[in-house]
Amino acid sequence: MALASFKEQMDNSYQEIFMKSLVAKEIANSRLEKNLSYGASVKRVKMFVDGIRVRDIASHTNRVIDQTNDQGETMVINKNKGTTFRLMKNEETQAGPLSPAEFAGAKVAMKTAIVVDGDVLAEVKNAWAPFDNGDLTTLVSSGTPVDFTKANMELILTRAQAKLGKNLGGMAGIINTAWVIDSYGLAEVAQYLMAKNTDFSKAIFQNGLINDLKANNAEIYVSEALTSDIVINMGTNATAGQTVTVGNFTFTFVASIGTTAGNVLLGGTVDASRANLVAAINAHLLDDPVDTANYIVFKDVPASYTYAGAQLSELRLTATNNTAGNQVLITGIGCGRQLVATTVTSATIGSNVVHFYYGKKGAIDVVIQDEVDTEVKEDPYQRAKIILSDKLYGIKTFGDGKMKFLDVKVKTQ
Amino acid sequence: MKPAGSSHQAEKKTGGKLTDKEFDAIKDDPEAMKDYRKDLVSRIQKAGLY
Description:
Structural class of chain B: mainly alpha
Distance between the termini of chain A: 49 Å
Largest interface: A-B, 22 and 20 residues
Strand content of chain A: 25-35%
CATH superfamily of the largest domain in chain A: Major capsid protein gp5
Helix content of chain A: 10-25%
Order of helices and strands of chain A: HHEEEEHEHEHEEEEEEHEEEEEEEE
Number of helices of chain B: 3
Order of helices and strands of chain B: HHH
Number of strands of chain B: 0
Largest sheet of chain B: none
Oligomer: heterodimer
Number of domains of chain A: 3
Distance between the termini of chain B: 20 Å
Number of strands of chain A: 20
CATH architecture of the largest domain in chain A: 2-Layer Sandwich
Radius of gyration of chain B: 11 Å
Shape of chain B: flat
């Protein structure tokens, strides 16, 4: 296939799928820009009227003049995500209804959309107010994640709406709202609303929107690119062979480092062991994770074509060693709900929370490059094409946007 | 969408995808490209890709 045709077919396929699968496009205030450059900043100015008071007016007395001012906040276009891969000539044979370029474009678009959605949905944590178990029965959040189950559904849907309404100064503000939940969350909503027609397949090509299902007049979107926060308490050192599992990946504490992926060297103290575990997790944030004396990484490329779920690097986990609190804190941007388990005798799963979005649509601002920036080159050393495709974007939750949604903290397991 | 000049037999063989030549023939025609993209989405679904 000629390079120019390949590029054009790939671009078309990419754009069609990217724009139809991106949940953020519907939830956020998304703007597509033709000409974006990395590092550019977009300033948004809004009149700040919080200083204006409604006062008693007394005759013959100077009135108090309240201050208003232009509140300017800036969004920086600082996210440049792309894919780079080689397509061998003999791999270009594509049976079925798609050309190799169309196939590659669609696949790469799906992967990119998950990353962009992950970044946008991570903004949920910037909400002005959380919503958790405490909010089900009181006016305050307790810090305990809510059990997003059918049994709690009436309370969740109505109380979340009430909390948002109060924050926005009245229920009149509760229009154009949406939930962004994951598949397991949807399963619970669907049971609660089973009398409705729940044809989930209709979410396809509709940016995750579940078309026939509304919860307390809020649209429901499904995404597996939600943010998760995990706390593992570990106050006493592990022994060799004991494990910590996140999703499909098991880290095993070992006395001698060996060669098995996921091996983490036991430290002389629990703090040192936690530090090694944290470093092992964080190594997968690098483009090319490498083994060290303290851990063996999970190789990014599967050994076979057998699909084994997302690779560890795709979960975008960042771990922190909380030495004072004897904890490992893990945040996964766009990783969705993750199963976490440990066989370390002293360790417990302190919390495992996935962050759902509930609020007005358009509260988070996103500026995305309109067209995908693709380059297809002939590989000088092989009968192959090298394909580079980039997407540039910026995300910001402005001050007034933070009020318009809740960070719904949901118990994962 | 049937590519210009394609026969039923050709469509069956290719699953509706266009050859380079067929694609080049329509790529500057906005209407034809609209049809192409519509067809593309249905082919992506047919391929079970999404």
